[in-house]
Design brief:
Elements (H helix, E strand, L loop, with lengths): L16 E5 L12 H8 L12 E5 L3 H13 L2 E5 L17 E2 L11 H11 L6 H20 L14 E2 L9 E2 L5 H19 L2 E4 L2 E9 L2 E9 L5 E5 L2 E4 L20 H8 L4 E2 L4 E7 L22 E5 L16 E2 L1 H5 L9 H16 L8 E4 L1 H7 L1 H19 L8 E10 L2 E2 L12 E3 L16 H22 L13 H18 L7 H15 L6 H21 L11 H25 L23 H4 L1 E6 L5 E6 L16
Parallel strand pairs: 1-21, 2-3, 2-11, 3-7, 11-19
Antiparallel strand pairs: 4-6, 5-6, 8-9, 9-10, 12-18, 12-20, 13-17, 14-15, 14-16, 16-17, 20-21
Protein name: Succinate dehydrogenase
InterPro entries: FAD-dep_OxRdtase_2_FAD-bd (IPR003953), FAD/NAD-bd_sf (IPR036188), Fum_R/Succ_DH_flav-like_C_sf (IPR037099), Fum_Rdtase/Succ_DH_flav-like_C (IPR015939), SdhA/FrdA/AprA (IPR030664), Succ_DH/Fum_Rdt_flav_su (IPR011280), Succ_DH/fumarate_Rdtase_cat_sf (IPR027477)
GO molecular function: electron transfer activity; flavin adenine dinucleotide binding; steroid dehydrogenase activity, acting on the CH-CH group of donors; succinate dehydrogenase activity
Length: about 650
């Protein structure tokens, strides 16, 4: 074994190199006016010239569908790619609870500034402040826009759009459509996209998976894709590429994401030179359903909106065996209300997940496997009545009943932390462009807005803001100087070379004749990550995780079995490529987590906590974004973070 692995804790200097300072392009001056100033100074493309540009958009979730629809509406020639059989199948449908907006319609003292403060503080001061101001400013337009294109938001009795609260805030700014918000927004965005397909401005490529990024003359100029039905591998070139391919939470195997969600498009771009920001910043959602069997293939998400009316508790005594309804009030510990009285059950997700994990590890877990906590609607049912609760959460209760056989109107729900959202992603500057010119990133594939912890209902918002109101401004600014240049021809060496490399990777995977299928490796990888890079981390655990990931990768390379042929529909081959990328990503995640010697947001190092057990953030040494460059030893570059309108403070959810 290498000397690097001789001790329990690996020397981080043996795993990574240190690069330089990178500039995120955050405008100087008041961050509240940065977006208006940047838009005013963007270069424009006249309407008659827009059809001369080809823009590639990969992914048709909220960010991708919106970007393709908006650029198509403006007159650009757009190629939209999805590995689904229809754009509306994208994973954005799964976000249930709502979408935030600082419209300030309720008299509860909400504002743009308060939205920014909640978002920056909620992310534990590890996001770019000016990006959060853009998110807040455009949030006002997003709600009106999505309503105009067909999203059926809930309404108050007088007709005004209804709102509710989400974790990490003390105001009501979340707009919703019962528990189907993501689905309804995705349907509306998909219809807008298909309108442009019918108009001829967007060419839609379904059942097509991106395998690689074509980089020529230092610019992103196309992609290589595989037709998942025929197996054909081909190239599409263009003047710019937008990646909106979602997050990488499925690296944990058992996550709340759809099983097809993956990191391949983003990670292949990373291998071509795009920096990857904060890969270890992974959110564990506090209201996932507990695993009921080790052979379960994924976890199920219950919306955070349930925490508005449900109270979270565990039995006061460890090892409790009585049914929940038989445990008297005096023997129940409403631990979030006790520990964080100002926010109670609506504490941010990272705080709530760690608190739940503490209770479970202390032996107070509930359910057959003692791996959950209760979410109880008894008091709200008594206060509001069954009809009101069913109107708010009826479809969520139906989902829970279908999954567990228990009716939450009669017995408390059982919930537990589950791998969910990736705050990390491809690094982008203020203009949403990656470190490779011409490569833009939107939605969860990027890193912007959320820092080390995402506030609930900011995911749908960030995807919509990127797709409808950021990329349609930023992409034309990049394209304007390229007027008159043609897209790369099919016989360009960068195109033929990247095609050949992609085919070689696919052929090598298809030729694998070992004894284990890709899902077996993926499941084992997830177990490693949950144990060593999960809700809480230690230097020793992360070091062991890196060792185990490297051993698993070596086994994957020698004992992978891929049945079938590459010439046609082959889901085993698809999964093999995605698991290969997950293995590489997992190691980078652990290196990033081992490197960052602090606790912040969802990155909780047990060595770095305050006397009361809360996260000990280290602004003096770690107030920057880690942006990793691919290599045999990854190189960490730093983007320093500056805060002018929301000054860093210790996060406090115990008092107002």
């Amino acid at each position: 074994m290498s000397a690097v692995f001789d001790s329990a804790v690996i020397n981080i200097d043996a795993l990574r190199d240190i690069g330089g300072i990178i500039d995120g392009g955050q405008p100087t001056g008041d961050p509240a006016g940065a977006w208006a100033d940047r838009k005013l100074n963007y270069k424009l493309v006249s309407p008659l010239n827009r059809r001369k540009f080809d823009v590639i958009v990969v992914g048709t979730g909220l960010a991708g569908a919106a970007c393709a629809a908006a650029l198509g509406e403006l007159g650009y020639n757009v190629h939209a790619f999805t590995f689904h059989d229809a754009p509306r199948r994208a994973h954005s449908v799964a976000a249930q609870g709502g979408i935030n907006a600082a419209r300030g319609r309720k008299v509860d003292n909400d504002s743009l500034a308060r939205f920014v403060k909640d978002t920056v503080k909620g992310g534990d001061f590890r996001a770019r402040e000016a990006d959060c101001w853009r998110l807040a400013e455009e949030s006002v337009r997003v709600i009106d826009h999505m309503e105009a294109v067909g999203a059926p938001f809930a309404r108050e009795y007088g007709g005004q759009l209804a709102t509710r609260s989400f974790g990490g805030v003390q105001v009501s700014r979340t707009y919703y459509t019962r528990g189907q918000t993501g689905q309804q927004l995705q349907v509306a965005a998909s219809q807008a996209l298909l309108r442009q397909v019918a108009a001829g401005t967007v060419t839609l490529h379904t059942r097509s998976e991106m395998l690689d990024l074509i980089v020529a003359d230092g610019r992103a100029q196309g992609i290589v894709v595989r037709d998942l039905t025929t197996g054909d591998i081909w190239a599409q070139t263009g003047h710019a590429v937008v990646l909106a391919t979602g997050g990488y939470g499925n690296v944990f195997f058992k996550s709340t994401l759809a099983k097809n969600s993956n990191v391949t498009a983003a990670f292949r771009a990373h291998k071509r030179g795009a920096l990857f920001a904060s890969p270890s910043f992974i959110q564990f959602h506090p209201t996932a359903l507990p695993l009921s069997s080790e052979w379960q293939s994924k976890t199920i998400l219950m919306s955070e909106s349930l925490r508005n009316d449900g109270r979270i508790w565990v039995p006061s005594a460890p090892g409790e065996t009585r049914p929940a309804n038989d445990i008297p009030e005096a023997e129940r510990d409403y631990y979030l209300e006790r520990r964080y009285p100002a926010f109670g059950n609506l504490t941010p997700r990272d705080v709530a997940s760690r608190a739940a994990r503490d209770e479970i590890d202390a032996g107070r877990g509930v359910g057959p496997l003692k791996n959950g906590v209760y979410l109880d609607f008894r008091d709200s049912l008594a206060r509001l009545g069954r009809k009101v609760i069913e109107e708010r959460y009826g479809n969520l209760f139906e989902m829970y009943t279908d999954a567990t056989g228990e009716n939450p109107l009669e017995v408390p729900m059982r919930i537990a932390p589950g791998a969910h959202f990736s705050m990390g992603g491809l690094w982008t500057d203020y203009d949403a462009m990656a470190s490779i010119p011409g490569l833009f990133v939107g939605g969860e594939a990027g890193w912007a807005y959320h820092g080390a912890n995402r506030l609930g209902a900011n995911s749908l918002l960030s995807a919509c803001v990127d797709g409808w109101f950021t990329l349609p401004y930023a992409v034309p600014n990049y394209l304007a100087p390229l007027l008159g240049q043609q897209a790369l021809p099919a016989d360009h060496p960068a195109v033929t070379g990247t095609l050949a490399e992609a085919r070689a990777v696919v052929d090598a995977l298809a030729a694998s004749s070992g004894t284990q299928g890709p899902d077996r490796f993926h499941r084992r990888l997830g177990e490693i990550l949950y144990t060593h890079c999960g809700v809480s981390r230690t230097a020793e655990g992360l070091s062991e995780g890196i060792r185990l990931i490297r051993e698993l990768r070596a086994e994957f390379q020698t004992d992978l079995r891929v049945a079938g042929s590459p010439d046609g529909f082959n889901q085993e081959l698809e999964r093999a490529g995605r698991v290969a990328d997950f293995l590489d990503l997992a190691e980078l995640m652990c290196i990033d987590a081992l490197d960052r010697e602090e606790s912040c947001g969802a990155h909780f190092r047990l060595e770095h906590q305050l006397s009361d057990g809360e996260a000990a953030r280290d602004d003096a040494h770690w107030s920057f974004v880690s942006a990793w460059q691919h290599g045999a030893r990854p190189t960490r570059h730093n983007e320093p973070l500056h805060f002018d309108s929301v000054l860093p403070e210790t996060r406090n959810y115990k008092s107002s």
